[in-house]
Every structure is written in structure tokens, then in C-alpha cells.
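A reminder from the course coordinator: this example appears on the midterm review sheet, so study it carefully.

Given structure:
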């Protein structure tokens, strides 16, 4: 639902109180309590859905996000029963990284202030010692408008963020850096954090990895904004995923999500060849 001009806010992050951000900033004890409450609600889908909506600030609902939330609930109900559910995005991120094969490439597309980059890198230090994260970003902000409150140039930075020793920044637009990187870094992708926001950026990244045979059964992709914002069904990372996968010999299964937020993790799978048509 588009915003009226008077409803727009200057910053991509709304200034109103957000319970999810508050929980993320309170450290491991608060995260553990929130996670136990989330798991306890698992058998009661209606109550859990209400809890999901209640955790989003009222200011979000005024901007059409309640509609997106209801669309997301319907989407989440189609997930396989084996998919893990997390109330906090950081816990989904840690779990997904820990599931990845240490022998492949670990990539991130969209760095911003480096928070997720450093979180992934620190998780890799524990679960996959000696592996490196290659993180791509132009640091000039979004190349085009994404949402009514995220215009072209949003998330731009004057200086590069400080990152962990095992994280290596690849500076520039994806279209200017990814091809050269792939030419000099062989191997399949074990884990990729797709934090592209835009459909055009997510489509380019996924298409490039597929065209260069860098995605294979077992590759894990964690999307940072797959769902749960106005227009997510018809645009953004979800549209790119829907257009490119399943495709050819690859399919995917959803293995985890943070349904209160926007994050979804998938594992690529092999698609069985079709038999002869009768």
C-alpha cells in the first residue's frame, strides 16, 4: 500500500519503539526468554499469529504493514513442518550459518553498517574456524528506490564499517564486482546472505550464481527481506527467488524463518528429472 507524501519518514528505520529491535539489543538472556515463549506458542497457530502481529509496533500497522503481515502469515502456513521458526532474526542467522558446509564459499550481498556481517563472521569463527566471509556492498546506498521510506541512496555510508578479521569487504556495485570475484574464487556457495532489498539486485546476484554453476544441492540462502513488508509478494527478493527457482536441476526447501520479521532460509535441492511423457 503506497504511503501518502505526509506519511513518509526520513530514515529507513522507523523511530517508534520496536519490540524486536529491543529484544535483539538486550543480549542472550532476553533472547533465550523470547525464544522459549515463541516455541511455547508453536502448537497454537492462531495465538502465535496474534503474538506475531502484537510484536510489531503500531506505527508499522499505520503504514500498511498489517496487510503485509497477514499475507506473511498465510505464506508461513505453507512452510513444511520441518522448517525451524525463530522469533529473532539473529538466532535464525546463527542457526543457518552453523548448518552450512565449511568447504564452500560464504558470501553476503548487502553490508550496510556491518552488523549482520560481523554477526555472521563471529558465528563462522565458532562453527567453521578458518573460513572467510566475502561481503559485497557499494556503500553508496540503494541504487534505486525500494520502499516509500527507502529512496535511492538509503543506507549510504561515508566510511567503510569495521569488520571482523575473517570478513573481507568487496566494494562496488554487484554488477561491477561479482563477475571478477567468481572468476578468481572457484567452488560452490555453501552459504549466502541475500540482503539486497531490491528485486533488480537480488535477481542479478541469484542469476549470476546460477549461471556460473555456483549454487548446488545443499547451498543455503538466507534472505533478509523475503516477506512481511508492503509489496513483498510482487517485488523484492521474493520475486527474484520465485522467478529463478525452481529452475533447471535445482529446487529448494524452506528450512527456517523469523516470521515476525522478514527473514527466510532455504536449502537448495536436486530436482528429479522427469520421465518420458506418455
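Designed residues:
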Amino acid at each position: 500500500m503506497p504511503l501518502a507524501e505526509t506519511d513518509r519518514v526520513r530514515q529507513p528505520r522507523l523511530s517508534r519503539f520496536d519490540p524486536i529491535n529491543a529484544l535483539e539489543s538486550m543480549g542472550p538472556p532476553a533472547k533465550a526468554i523470547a525464544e522459549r515463549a515463541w516455541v511455547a506458542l508453536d502448537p497454537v497457530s492462531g495465538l502465535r499469529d496474534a503474538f506475531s502481529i502484537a510484536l510489531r509496533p503500531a506505527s508499522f500497522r499505520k503504514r500498511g504493514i498489517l496487510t503485509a503481515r497477514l499475507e506473511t502469515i498465510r505464506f508461513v502456513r505453507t512452510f513444511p513442518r520441518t522448517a525451524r521458526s525463530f522469533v529473532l532474526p539473529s538466532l535464525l542467522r546463527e542457526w543457518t550459518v552453523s548448518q552450512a558446509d565449511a568447504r564452500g564459499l560464504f558470501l553476503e550481498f548487502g553490508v550496510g553498517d556491518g552488523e549482520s556481517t560481523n554477526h555472521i563472521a563471529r558465528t563462522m569463527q565458532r562453527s567453521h574456524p578458518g573460513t572467510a566471509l566475502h561481503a559485497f556492498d557499494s556503500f553508496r546506498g540503494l541504487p534505486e528506490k525500494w520502499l516509500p521510506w527507502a529512496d535511492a541512496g538509503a543506507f549510504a555510508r561515508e566510511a567503510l564499517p569495521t569488520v571482523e578479521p575473517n570478513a573481507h569487504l568487496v566494494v562496488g556495485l554487484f554488477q561491477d564486482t561479482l563477475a571478477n570475484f567468481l572468476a578468481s574464487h572457484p567452488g560452490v556457495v555453501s552459504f549466502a546472505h541475500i540482503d539486497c532489498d531490491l528485486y533488480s539486485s537480488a535477481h542479478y546476484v541469484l542469476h549470476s550464481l546460477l549461471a556460473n554453476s555456483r549454487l548446488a544441492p545443499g547451498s543455503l540462502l538466507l534472505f533478509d527481506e523475503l516477506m512481511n513488508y508492503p509489496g513483498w509478494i510482487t517485488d523484492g527478493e521474493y520475486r527474484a527467488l520465485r522467478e529463478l527457482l525452481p529452475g533447471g536441476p535445482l529446487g529448494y526447501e524452506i528450512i527456517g524463518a523469523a516470521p515476525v520479521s522478514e527473514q527466510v532460509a532455504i536449502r537448495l535441492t536436486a530436482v528429479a528429472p522427469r520421465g518420458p511423457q506418455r
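DSSP finds ten helices and eight strands in the chain. Residues 12-82 form one domain.
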